[in-house]
Amino acid sequence: MSTTAERVRGILNQHAKLSADARKLEETADLYAVGLSSFSTVQLMLALEEHFDVELPDRMLNRRSFESIASISNVIDAVIGDRVAG
Amino acid sequence: MTTSQAAFLKQLLEHGILIDMGVDGLYGRSGVFEDVVERFSILVAGFGRDDKAEVIRFPPGMSRGQFESSGYMKSFPQLAGTVHSFSGNDHQHADLIANIEAGKDWTDGQKATDVVLTPAACYPLYPVIAKRGILPQQGGLFDLHSYCFRHEPSIDPARMQMFRMREYVRIGTPEQVLDFRQSWLERGEQLMRSLGVPVVLDVANDPFFGRAGKLLSNNQRDQKLKFELLIPITSEENPTACLSFNYHQDHFGTKWGLCTCADTVAHTACVGFGMERVALALFKHHGLDVTTWPRPVRKLLWGD
Q1: What integer is the mean pLDDT of B174-191?
Q2: Domain boundaries, chain A
Q3: Is the dihedral of CA A17, A18, A21, A27 positive or negative?
Q4: Exposed / middle / buried, residue B289 (Cβ in 10 Å: 0-12, 13-18, 19+)
Q5: Which residue from A1, A3, A83, B187 has the fewest beta carbons nearer than 10 Å?
């Protein structure tokens, strides 16, 4: 089964309109530097929620959560972790 | 807070400064109120005179097509006002009249026209400037003033549904646009302090719709894209935004294909004055009788 980060890369390529291929980016690369806009972040958020069947809490809806593949993966893992723990 | 809003509104209506029109947020304005708005507008123009902005006045409606392209519905669908008109036949007209007389919903047959109420004074500007072609080296600076509509009925007299927004809009390189915003952050505060009202400058966000809006709001705050000059009108704890200073980055530039002479996407920024809000702040702090306003304030506005 693919890791969260690998799945995030696929979703980025489909929804984020980046100027680079997300599969070739470093996990910590700045996504805003490769063209992630505010409105693309909204599309990305909705796609991530649908794909992982989660709802990101308001406190995670900020610029830092979406700044890199690593930060997005951490957010998703944390939300899934909370759900399992809960 | 709603008690103090209702009390201030009652006071304004009783003194005939605003005139009830039967809908929250929709008021007639007295001559006294209009005089304050006009004098303030002249004062603003004085502060901006040396910049030699191009004056353009748009009506309070804009093209529906351009409105759709602007992306406004992505962010603020709850605030938009669209103009609809009857376009049916004789039979449907008879139904319409019967429904009105019976107190039933008669709006089924209303069809969207090509006009949408202007949501912010700068919205009609961008496509007009894009059509002119590449910007000159010094970029563009525009002086706008328009009635705007936002669907947010409220008893707060400082939250009208139809109100005037005076704006300066800068279009150019990021440096040109940020310099403009910085200069107006300073001027705006100086201008309002000179009118003897207490002001606070704060980072702000637009009222984006829904959960996605939460993300956009947080992004806007994180990047300090919007500042507001707040003045207490009906509440000390929640002062009212009377001026706003907005940096749109390349949002409108990309949307409308605005290009600098160096063939880069133009950035935009604007300073907006909520004319009714400023007038209400002055009435609140200096009293409902303008002849008794402090001498320095009267001198600035009326030259007394």
Answers
A1: 97
A2: 4-85
A3: negative
A4: exposed
A5: A1
> In this predicted model, what pLDDT tens digit does every residue of A22-41 receive, in sequence order?
999 999 999 999 999 888 89
CA distance A39 to A6: 23
Find the CB nearest B222 among A39, A42, A62: A62
Sequence-distant (6+) residues with CB within 8 A of B126 are B70, B252, B255, B256, B258, B268
Q: List the structure tokens of A59.
A: 């406190």
Please indicate whether, in this complex, the C-beta atoms of B214 and A61 are within 8 angstroms of each other.
Answer: yes
Domain at A4-85, CATH homologous superfamily: ACP-like (1.10.1200.10)
Q: What is the ipTM of this complex?
A: 0.81
Which A residues in the span 46-85 are in contact with B, Cβ-Cβ below 8 Å?
46, 58, 61-64
- The 10s digit of each residue's pLDDT in B74-110 is 899 999 999 999 999 999 999 999 999 999 999 988 9
CATH number listed for the domain at residues B2-79+119-241+250-302: 3.30.930.10
Q: Closest residue of A to B223, CA-based?
A: A63
First to last CA, chain A: 24
Structure confidence at residue A86 as a pLDDT band (50, 70, 90): low
Cα distance between the two ends of chain B: 36
Interface of B with A in 21-80 (CB under 8 A): 71, 74
8-state DSSP, B57? -
User: B219–A58: do the CB atoms touch at under 8 Å?
Assistant: no
Nearest alpha carbon to residue B141 among B162, B119, B111, B171: B171
C-alpha neighbours within 13 Å on the C-beta side of residue B94? 2
**A22–B contact, CB cutoff 8 A:** no
Nearest chain A alpha carbon to B75: A39
Cβ contact B300:B194 at 8 Å? yes
| Parts of chain B belonging to CATH 3.30.930.10 | 2-79+119-241+250-302
Query: Can you name the residues that pair with B256 across neighbouring β-strands?
Result: none
Pick A38's closest partner by Cβ from B211, B214, B216.
B216
Which chain B residue shows the shortest CA-CA distance from A45? B212
